[in-house]
Design a protein that fits this description.
CATH topology: Growth Hormone, Chain: A
Largest sheet: 2 strands, antiparallel
Shape: globular
Strand content: under 5%
Structural class: mainly alpha
Number of helices: 17
CATH architecture: Up-down Bundle
Helix content: over 70%
Amino acid sequence: MSNAKQKTVKYAVGDSENSKIFRWPVFAWAAWDLGSAAFNAVVTTFVFTVYLISDGTFTDSGTASEYLSYGMTAAGIIIALLAPITGQRADRRGHGTLLLGVNTFGVVLCMVGMFWVYPGSVLGPMGALWMGIFLLGLGNVFFEFASVNYNAMLGRISTNKNMGTISGIGWGSGYVGGIILLFLLLFAFLGDEPHWFGVTGKDYLNIRVSILTAALWFALSALPVLFTIRGRKYESVEADESHHESIFDSYRLLWGTIKSLYHSAPQTVLFLAASALFRDGLAGVFIFGAVIAKTVFGFSNAEILKFAILANVIAGVATYAFGWIEDRIGPKRVIVIALSAMIFCGLVVFFFHSSGSVIFWSFGLALTAFVGPAQSASRAFLGRLIPEGREGEVFGLYATTGRAVSFLAPAMYGLFLAIGKLYTGQATGYEYWGILGVILILILGLLVLLPVKPERAHLNHH
């Protein structure tokens, strides 16, 4: 799509209004992030995924972990094929908010379906395990598609001067939501009995009810943004409502956008490639962090929740603190520091895993402190790289293509599990090798990031 053919309908809230940080559209937008902790923290990281791979629940933990990596890799491939175009198609038709709602409630329905995942179901243990992996993978697909539309809204509620601050408010809200919801579930259903409302641990009912509670939390938190921020439509010849846009048309338009951006702002394209890699590594930390705590270090479910709460507190504080540091040393340095620290901590966990849980409590928690700063600084860094007048276009590209390699971390985790199994020759006890798969993706992202030269971002290379 050429720039000459593309113009946007001005969002109802003007630039002067967007210069204010503490206002309803920002709070409504951040509420979705607060609610997303129901899926990120409860389902993907600390409760449901751990439940699936727990030794003896459905099968042994090594087999369950391998099957989980297969399911998440398949979901990642689907995301890679479709995410780069779904956001652009939605924006060209002004359906971004509508699809945010559809995909969000797709996630919620997957979470509701998880209530029927337990070994005593009519499917049997292995059938229930595969159903759980399917719902988890499908939920991730819906969640990533929703995130495409959600992230694209950032430019509509902010200006270049406060985009980093508002982005940080969103990330911070996610950590706050995680802390509140995990505390609630720990005291209500996941701690010692008796549980609230007479719920017991029979057939893992307390875990299943926790997922239902998280689904309700996400559904309610998503409502404010859906009723507050409208879709933004691109008017263009290609987007004529009388013309049916095929999948191939969407990819052609996407490729045209990338080529145009490469000629006018190659540093921006290089950063988009780097961020796609290291953000997938960060997603891998969330997906497999609690799995490693359970399978490698033998954490109980209660210990995992306590770790999760403490990790969210540390990550939230670090995100706000690094926002202040970023203004003084620049976002690229913050990202390099964060990725380097995470790689170091991950390698320590790998090489010293035999020292016991103290290694994960110390270096695992230290690693989580750098996830939020890397994510928040990444969006802010891109905001400084974008050529003037192309903010909406590039942030849409960032939101969509950032998930185009989302199969890599699960695939590398599964690959290194297989390598560990072969290298050790053990039927169990090799799960710590999966750590290297996630670390590899972080290293690749860091190596692609290092050559990015922000001072050359706005040079014209036609």
